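From the shared-data thread, chain only:
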Amino acid sequence: MEKTNQMEDVQNFADNRKIAINQVGIKSLKFPIIIADNTKNQATVAVVNMYVSLPDNVKGTHMSRFVGILNEIYQSKKAISIQNFPQLLQEMIERLEAENGFIEMNFPFFINKAAPVSGVQSLLDYDLTFIGKINKTNGVDFTLKMVIPVTSLCPCSKKISEYGAHNQRSHVTVCVKFHKDRIANICIENLIRSIEKEASCELYSLLKRPDEKFITEKAYDNPKFVEDMVRDVAAKLNKISEITWFSVESENFESIHNHSAYAKIEQQK
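Structure, as tokens:
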């Protein structure tokens, strides 16, 4: 009898347990990507999670297709943006023949910043995540998550002290959803810059002595509690018509305590 070289595709076998799977795929894959923001492209490395739903009658999904999609993007040097991320979700569920899909890309995003006095330039990193869900019936749900490091100075400490006030580095975490027909107007860099201006002072990677003097005094003149931080950022986000929903969190890594101060606001516009 003639032997065949054809390999069986076990994952396509039927499954008789009749239990559907909500999410199946790959997790924590590190992959080089290009992020497009307005007219700028930036190379970075993302940690990627990609999942699809699996019907109750199918044994397994095609794991290699997830990596194949990313590899095609890399080979073609195609940039990923908040505007075209829904297309990536659509392509994934088509390739995987699924009803639902989920992609999460977490990556460092760099902004070139000029110091406030000397003007010396340096790159500062921000932690960004693209989070997308897709359903064949309901379409795409996209969220941009940004972790923005800033400086905060305590108003109470300033008020009660004869000199000085305690300050600390803080993380402002902002998640936003956009109008689908207005997302083309969004520039991530501009959004980050507008948010960090609501802090006591923003951060820089490289500072000369005149710059350090400037930001120390700026923070002192602009003290803020975590409550002030989230309210001021929320007020700023409420003025951006492209945004439909947002959450803003502030965590102050306290310099006089071994715990953080924290506040959060979530709003549907």
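Strands lie at 21-37, 40-54, 100-114, 121-135, 139-153, 167-178, 201-202, 243-253, 260-268.
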